[in-house]
Amino acid sequence: MVHAIEEINRSGELGNITLGYHLVDSCGDVTTALRNSLRFMKMNGNFNTDSKQQSSPPVMAVIGDYYSEISMAVTRQLNLEKIPQISYGATSGLLSDKTRFPSFLRTVPEDDHQAQAIIQILKDHNWNWVGIVATNGEYGRYAVERLQHHAASQDICFAYIKFLPEFLVDSNLEDSLRDTVKSVIENQNVSVIVSFAKPSHMRYMFDNVLKDHRGRKKVWIASDNWSQAVDCLNTTRWNLKDFGTVFGVTLKSGNSSRFERFLRNLTNNSDQYENKNSFLMEFLKRNDDSNNGSNTSIEFKIDRLVNMTYLYAILSIELAVKAIAQTVKDLCVTKKCDISTLQPGEFRDALKSANISLDGRNYSFNKHCDLDSGYDIIMWRYLSGRTLDMNYQVGHYDIKRDRLMVTSEINNLYHQTFFVHMQQQYHLSPIEVAGPKYLKRYSCRVWCAKSDLVHSEGCRDYANLKLGIFNMLD
After folding, report:
1. What's the CA angle centered on 98, arms 116 and 62, to 5 degrees?
2. What are all long-range contacts of 9-14, with beta carbons under 8 Å and residues at least 24 apart?
3. Nearest CA to 323 among 365, 290, 273?
4. Which of 126, 180, 210, 321 has its CB 3.0 to 4.6 Å from that of 162, i.e. a possible disulfide?
5. β-strands 381-384, 355-358 pairing
6. Is the dihedral angle over the CA atoms 422, 411, 396, 205 positive or is it negative?
7. Rounded Cα gap, residues 243 and 207, in angstroms
8. What pLDDT score does 236 carry?
9. Which residues of the chain have pLDDT under 50?
């Protein structure tokens, strides 16, 4: 974020106006985030009762938070002063309601689109007996609800749906994780699992699921929450081949070369960021003996930082900064506003109409103040040794056209997985799997009827088809 703001300031596109900023860390906690956002509000004259702080420039906009749960609380507080909030990661569809959240904007699409992308992956390749894992918060609950909504018309059944506590300090977390791991291991007829969990949840799950051979060689579809989280899989302990296949739905990425160049140049120019980016400087200066023993060189740390960078976050943050800069330009360069009297509410209204240009593409917020940039589909693979590549793109999802486009490589893998799954579950020959035209149409119902979960919620509606379909198969 600092890099994106400094790039705007160096470009001179705002004339004699400089974008100022103040960075705080929410620590993934609602209370901490609210305490920090209150600081921003105290900088504005209408809210401020402390004369010592009134000399600070007013806050016109706030960028963040990444999580939906935190963003909902923060934007409600900021809205008391009509301060707009632009998130680069909060994707819950509830935030699209402008009656409840009039000051919230985001440079990412809402999760209904992600659910549609996942349904297309499942539907196009006949994966219709699926397990679901999600966090028990605004993000997870909404994502699962939309997934169920779109699955209803596509003959897709859910063998189990497991919700995990949102926060790591929750006293029920350990029991919930154990129960979820048990479901993954014991439901051997479920080869595909969709997860909207957090990276910390997934690391615990993988460490325990992979201990049992029944939990291996699954197909995991990762939401944007953890699809590129490098610490999800302990590669010193587990091999990706034993683990199975991971496809990820990620927010659209853009040109990351500028940011990587900035990071690579830190070895020569770190002093100029000493007082501007305390988080970055702390990372580069602290001793780190967790990798390669005593390797604590700044070059090693920068390499690690580059590998840890989420490519989609670069685009989403750059778009948020560019939107603010364009609004400043529209109001105060083109129209010559009086900065001393400019109010956050006026800035918010102009921000919603901003036309953003970045790397030759034009972007704008829709009527819900979302930015429908689309999704990339990735597949985990090894780069070298045990270094995971979580940026390997095998397709993308176009929101405006509601279309999933994938490479031939992913199509071949889906095809093979479908045949293996059918043969394992029904002991059919490849000819029997490929032959009956009715099998594809009724495969969801067949899987429900064949399993021991005929009376579960996902299969109850299909129990009456059991006799007729298996007479045909026989």
Report:
1. 95
2. 13/325, 13/329, 14/325, 14/328, 14/329, 14/332, 14/333
3. 365
4. 180
5. unpaired
6. positive
7. 10
8. 81
9. 49, 51-53, 289, 294, 416, 420, 423-474
